[in-house]
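ok so for the tutorial part 2 we go from a plain amino acid sequence to predicted structure tokens. step 1 is just haveing the sequence, like this:
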Amino acid sequence: MSRLATRAVLDYPFTPPASDGSVVEIAPDILWARMPMPMALDHINVYLLRDAEGWFLVDTGLNTDTCRERWEHIAATHWQGLPILGLICTHMHYDHAGLASWLCERFD
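step 2 — the prediction. this is what the tokens look like for a chain of 108 residues:
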């Protein structure tokens, strides 16, 4: 038996969204988006959760012009005029919370 580890292949039930402001609906009222990152790990997953009153955002992406542009695009094309009700940062790494202040200020 070989001592080399075999690589597991991940099988995703959805085709991942591009890091261009596209979203994938993974369940009713749950959207998945990716924010670009300029490094080997080239994106971060973010999620948008809708309820009757508006949206909750999960994670933010980096504090870059590109990520701000992606959020502007998502707001214009997917929020249907509903407000952000809350922002959830899963942890305090700069890629998960980098735009928290901007999102809160920009979208009140």
